[in-house]
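Hi team,

As requested, here is the filled-out complex form for the iron/sulfur cluster run. I kept the field names the same as last time so the parser does not choke. Let me know if anything looks off before we queue the next batch.

— J.
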Amino acid sequence: MAEVSIVRCNDYSEDNVRTALAEALEAIGGLDMIKPGMKVGIKVNLVTGAKPEKAVTTHPVMVCELIKMLTERGAEVVVGDSPGGLYNAAVLNGVYSVSGLKPVEKCGGKLNQDFSEKKAQFPEAKVLKEFEYTSWLDNVDVIINFAKLKTHGMMGMSAAAKNMFGAIPGIVKPEYHFRFPDYDRFAAMIVDLDEYFKPVLSIVDAVVGMEGNGPTMGIPREIGCVIASASPHKADLVCARVLGLTADRLPILTDAIERGLCPDSMEKLDIYGDPLEFYISDFNNIAHQKSIVFNGKGIFRTVIFNIIQWAVRSRPKLKKDECVGCRVCENICPAKAIKMVKGKAKIDRSTCISCFCCQEFCPKGAMKVKRPFVAKILDKKT
Ligand code: SF4
Ligand code: SF4
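And here is what came back:
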């Protein structure tokens, strides 16, 4: 039995999706853990309402085919997520509709309508010892994590592990960015969430992924595969290889490797299928600077290290002509670093924590990720 599977799927036709999903799941042990009467929660990626062809959300045909496989085993299936913004029936039903998920109900599943929230204590966590989450995830026996493969402004890549951030209610997500402004701690928070919810399966829809200004305003890019694993981190290690990224540029994967949840290279995994068959050499990534090693001692070391980190840190940059002054970024910014000046967003660099919520939720894609010049030079040398 393989630890990760990667299987060709050229399009979203029902037959191709069904065949690919069946093969990918069979290779990692199948669905025998699903018993009749079990309640299964499929945690999709619904970061925002977007048509399936925009490649923002998990594709509805993929979700429907998985539901059919689960209901054939006698399971009851509920599909859900918490996008950015308000977490209530009006918003979510709109998101389900725009994202093409309404047919889920015809396929035998239900769309989550429980919009209550709970608090969790997680003393074993590395950083997330206490948090709020969406209760629907408690009302299922097992969770299947069904992600989309995309670039991500803050974390570099959005795939299996990052998808569990959707367990946090949308309206409080910016608070978590503010609580964990440091990238390594934010990544550790995501790994804690994966450890808390422990999805039994992680599947990544990489038939058409997203490159460029992801995870919501990038460009769809055909990748042509489905990736599955019992471990979100092992699935992500394979996803990273397909996009030409290494773990040291992906803070979530780095943290998972440090915790021993995943090997440090894909070669150490037992994989069904060949990731290199799907490798895209010119994928337009948003990669992060590799960790910088600086030898020195005491306060001097800290000061220099912080200066270097500041110099290489990516930042949001407004394309003024694309900004329509809608104030979405101003309202969502956890650091209150955005003000409107003459009808356009203006960022206060001294308070910005580079969380990229503004880039993620700008409805016009006017906020981009800017790599500083120093970081670009270091990229070429490392
Ligand atoms: S969300 Fe985008 S379009 Fe709206 S004000 Fe901010 S930058 Fe401008
Ligand atoms: S300006 Fe954008 S990147 Fe900076 S803190 Fe606000 S939302 Fe985050």
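Two things worth flagging: Residues 318, 323-329, 345, 362, 364, 366-367 surround iron/sulfur cluster (ligand 1) (CB under 6 Å). The chain has two domains: 4-278, 298-381.

Thanks,
J.
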